Amino acid sequence: MTEEHRVLQVQERELTPYFQPILSLQTQKIIAYEALGRSVTGNEARSLGAFFQNPAISDEQHLHVDRILREKAISQMAQSGSEAMLFLNLKPSWIYRVYKETGALPTLQFVEKHGLDPGRVVIEVTEEEFHGRLDELSAIVDVYREHGCLIAIDDIGSGYSNYDRIASIKPNILKIDLKLLKKSTLHDGYKALLNSFSILSSQMGSSLLIEGVETKQDLYHALKAGARYVQGFLFSEARAEFQQERAYEPLLKEQIRLYTEQEMARYRALFAVQNNLNELVTSDVHLSGAQDADTMIESLLANVEPNVVRIYICREDGCQVSSNFIRETDGGWKRDARYQGANWIWRPYFIPNMLRMNNQRQGILSQVYTDLDTSLLMQTYSCPAGDSHYLFLDLQV
Asked: What is the secondary structure of 36-81 as a DSSP string?
């Protein structure tokens, strides 16, 4: 029997929900499960991905099978004694069409029927092109929210989960598939993208969930991106049974310990740079122009740390006075005068940083960012150099 024929022959009695654990980095416990569909015959469990992606199968049949799986998952969770949350995948087109046609939301009916607390249900709006009105979809999603459900948006940064949908729905959880992100054309910049999603989630008051965590290095990147929750084969595949909530606590505790040690060492090195510069740069220096600024930088070059890759001086109005001094691959320095007169006031952090340094009269260290010229991850240390000038050092992370 071909695979195509088999996916057309899914039997209701074979439909079985499997559950992949979602772990909290805050508590190191399993805090939720994502319900995934399987067709189980004897000891063989087959994914239903091919079934749901088969265009020869009608949308009505897809929806019918999904509802059976959804109700079974809700029933099993309600009877399990577990206190974990349950993530249920729903296509936006299904939510929209069913509610517009019937005024009902079957998932909420299943939740009430089986006595599951709606506060333990996460409606995961899946990645799919949506042709209806976004404001109406958001209003329908709000019905779930009003009943106590949490809302997640799946596959942020890929496919059709665009920022209009995120802004309109205002999800409690942003879910990013690390596998999809790494396979995308933006693979080389996926760490920077992860950082941007971290900023987005904090701005929206959402928690960040990173799935597709398959290696300890993936987990490190998830921690660095500010993920609150993680999911993936590093911990467990989807299983038919629920697991002990502390099953992966030792693994998480050890990896969090290693991550903390690495980050502490990195920040100690950065603060060593800061302390060294505080001794080298005096606040009473007087800079009258580009030559004075370049001379001052040249006096520092022999004493800065190896991870300093670029140095320059600006006035408080954003205008760069000095040349750029750029570290070369052999460790030497190259002077580039082309940046004299460039203005950096357009950078969003520039004015608040100037005011902070003016008030505190001490240096500050920026957040990690991706450098426009080199595409390297950087942090910038800046400190006062006289009354109206500021020294900037770009440090490779």
From this structure: EEEEEETTEEEESHHHHH-TTS-HHHHHHHHHHHHHHHHHHHHHH-
Contacts (Cβ under 8 Å, ≥6 apart) of 146: none
DSSP helix/strand/coil, 318: coil
Instruction: Give the pLDDT confidence score for residue 162 in this predicted structure.
Output: 65
Distance CA 57, CA 71 (A): 21
Render pLDDT for 24-82 as a digit per residue (tens, 0 to 9): 999 999 999 999 999 998 888 898 888 888 888 888 898 999 999 999 999 999 999 89
Strand partners, 330: none
Nearest to 51 by CA among 34, 65, 68: 65
Query: Running DSSP on this structure, what letter comes out for residue 162?
Result: -
Whether the Cβ atoms of residue 298 and residue 292 lie closer than 8 Å to each other: no
pTM of the model: 0.81
Structure tokens at 190: 């996926």
Q: What distance separates the 2 farthest-apart alpha carbons in the chain?
A: 84
Query: What tens digit of pLDDT does each residue of 126-182 get?
Result: 877 677 788 888 999 999 999 999 999 987 755 555 677 788 889 999 998 887 667
Apex CA 221: angle with CA 219 and CA 227, to 5°? 75
Tell me, what's the pLDDT at 224? 86
**Residues facing 395 on adjacent strands:** 308, 379
Tell me the CA distances in angstroms from 319 to 135, 284, 347, 359, one per residue in order.
45, 20, 12, 20
Alpha-carbon 246 to chain mean position: 24
DSSP symbols for 316-375:
TTSBB-S-EEEE-TTS-EEEEGGGTT-B-TTSTTHHHHHHHHHHH-S-EEPPPEE-TTT-
**Phi and psi angles of residue 175, each rounded to the nearest 5 degrees, phi first:** -115, 125
* CA distances in angstroms from 205 to 77, 208, 232, 292, listed in the order given: 28, 10, 24, 47
What is the end-to-end Cα distance of the chain in Å, rounded?
A: 54
Here the tokens at position 2 are 């071909």
Q: Return the SS3 of 213.
A: coil
- DSSP tag of 239: B
Residue 277 has pLDDT above 80, yes or no: no
